[in-house]
UniProtKB/TrEMBL annotation, chain A:
<feature type="transmembrane region" description="Helical">
    <location>
        <begin position="84"/>
        <end position="102"/>
    </location>
</feature>
<feature type="transmembrane region" description="Helical">
    <location>
        <begin position="58"/>
        <end position="77"/>
    </location>
</feature>
<dbReference type="Pfam" id="PF10002">
    <property type="entry name" value="DUF2243"/>
</dbReference>
<feature type="transmembrane region" description="Helical">
    <location>
        <begin position="122"/>
        <end position="144"/>
    </location>
</feature>
<keyword id="KW-1133">Transmembrane helix</keyword>
<keyword id="KW-0812">Transmembrane</keyword>
<dbReference type="InterPro" id="IPR018719">
    <property type="entry name" value="DUF2243_membrane"/>
</dbReference>
<keyword id="KW-0472">Membrane</keyword>
<feature type="transmembrane region" description="Helical">
    <location>
        <begin position="12"/>
        <end position="38"/>
    </location>
</feature>
TrEMBL record, chain B:
<keyword id="KW-0812">Transmembrane</keyword>
<feature type="transmembrane region" description="Helical">
    <location>
        <begin position="199"/>
        <end position="220"/>
    </location>
</feature>
<feature type="transmembrane region" description="Helical">
    <location>
        <begin position="135"/>
        <end position="154"/>
    </location>
</feature>
<feature type="transmembrane region" description="Helical">
    <location>
        <begin position="92"/>
        <end position="115"/>
    </location>
</feature>
<feature type="transmembrane region" description="Helical">
    <location>
        <begin position="59"/>
        <end position="80"/>
    </location>
</feature>
<keyword id="KW-0472">Membrane</keyword>
<dbReference type="GO" id="GO:0005886">
    <property type="term" value="C:plasma membrane"/>
</dbReference>
<dbReference type="Pfam" id="PF09678">
    <property type="entry name" value="Caa3_CtaG"/>
</dbReference>
<keyword id="KW-1133">Transmembrane helix</keyword>
Length: 154, 275
């Protein structure tokens, strides 16, 4: 079994996890937890500029795209070799953390598309959101680092 | 008749059409749907000496017809004249779900099997013509699809459509035909001599999903004239989430095609023993 193939499949495992993690953070976590379960988010708070609304639409579309893409990459790795699940999970966590951080900083704060919750002091919520995102990202990256394939280690 | 003219009269300045015209339109629709249903069965019969036609393709075809019928006739269609939410449900059925089901039922393949050789050759020549190539290109189909939506909801077309049978027919024909060509260009199962690359089809689909969701949120903030606020918002959310469901189905089918076309060849797998 050639090493280039193994490292290609390893890259594909990581890519699959990162895409799926970022994708579910963009499309599902937001929808199911914040819109439907907690009902903190509104469908559209009507205060958004049209530019921000447009950017939001593109991210929404891209979020679904990478969710499905990530899952099909995983299926593809699975039919070629045995999936390293711990490594994939690390990539998913890193992906979720990365997107939540991006969402919290760029969407909530810089673009102001929507806020985490309305009618409350946002500082605590922003701190929790961004803090948990950074922790997830670090934890995911640590898992990725610890599961690096032996032969690929420099 | 089924269209509600009282609150629309003042908006468009177009004299409402004779109820008989609307009734005639329904009759024509029923005829077309029955013709399509019988046509499929006749196609199966004509092609019965060929390899068996997969049952699931026929089921997809009839489900597709059923969705189109549900959108155009019956309770959804009559409610659509006064309720924006019902209009949107009909639109989802006619413009996304029915075309997707029909595109996955391989109607062209069945036609090519069932038609006499001469007619099949003509059909295949038409499908390979430059005109068909342009129209079935994902970029063109996607632009016509999303552009038609914006035209319908961001102009007065929606009001005109409820009063004028000609506009009503053209809008619904456009929604259905473009919806079909769009689905077929992305995830069709009929032979496509000019199938666009995976990268291009993915890009078009992502842009389409974006246009669809932006329009839904825009509609939420800018209710169409003649629709009550609550009704318009419910309709916009139905467009957003219903559109998402159909879009995710398109994404899954797009990647299913990629998945089956890119199976591992020998030497491209690593089994546990080889680690």
């Amino acid at each position: 079994m050639s090493t280039p193939l193994k490292s290609q499949l390893d890259r594909r495992t990581v890519l699959s996890g990162v895409l799926f993690g970022s994708g579910i953070a963009a499309s599902m976590i937001d929808l199911f937890i914040f819109h439907l379960a907690l009902q903190w988010h509104h469908f559209y708070d009507l205060s958004t500029t049209e530019v921000a609304l447009t950017i939001d639409g593109f991210f929404h579309a891209f979020g679904w795209f990478i969710t499905v893409w990530g899952l099909f990459l995983l299926a593809d790795v699975r039919r070629r070799t045995e999936v390293h699940w711990v490594r994939w999970t690390g990539a998913v966590l890193a992906g979720v953390g990365f997107f939540q951080l991006f969402d919290g900083v760029v969407f909530h704060k810089l673009l102001g598309i929507h806020q985490i919750r309305y009618g409350v002091d946002l500082f605590v919520y922003d701190l929790t959101w961004i803090g948990s995102a950074v922790m997830l990202l670090m934890f995911g990256l640590l898992m990725l680092r610890r599961t690096r394939p032996a032969r690929l280690r420099a | 008749m089924r269209h509600q003219e009282q609150h629309l009269d003042g908006l468009t300045g177009i004299a409402p059409a004779d109820p008989l015209v609307w009734a005639a339109l329904d009759v024509v629709l029923v005829l077309i749907l029955v013709l399509a249903a019988v046509g499929h069965a006749a196609g199966l019969r004509a092609a019965r000496r060929r390899s068996p036609w997969p049952l699931h393709r026929s089921i997809l075809f009839y489900l597709g017809l059923l969705c189109a019928a549900a959108a155009l006739l019956g309770p959804v269609a009559s409610a659509a004249h006064s309720s924006f939410t019902a209009h949107m449900l009909g639109h989802l059925l006619l413009g996304m779900i029915s075309p997707l089901l029909l595109a996955r039922s391989a109607p062209v393949t069945l036609a090519l099997r069932a038609l006499p050789v001469q007619a099949a050759r003509v059909l295949s020549r038409v499908l390979r013509s430059p005109g068909a190539r342009v129209l079935t290109h994902p970029v063109v189909a996607g632009t016509l699809n999303a552009g038609g939506l914006w035209l319908l909801y961001a102009t007065d077309l929606l009001q005109v459509m409820h009063v004028s049978p000609v506009a009503y027919t053209l809008v619904h024909l456009h929604i259905f035909v473009v919806g079909y060509v769009f689905s077929a260009s992305l995830v069709g199962v009929d032979p496509d001599p000019h199938r666009a690359s995976m990268a291009l089809r993915s890009t078009v689909l992502v842009l389409f999903i974006a246009a669809h969701s932006i329009l839904a949120k825009w509609l939420y903030a800018h209710p169409p004239e003649g629709a009550a606020d609550g009704d318009a918002r419910a309709g916009a959310q139905l467009m957003y989430y219903g559109g998402d469901a159909a879009d995710v189905a398109l994404l899954v089918l797009l990647f299913t095609g990629w998945y089956s076309a890119n199976g591992p060849r020998s030497g491209q797998t690593v089994r546990p023993g080889g680690r």
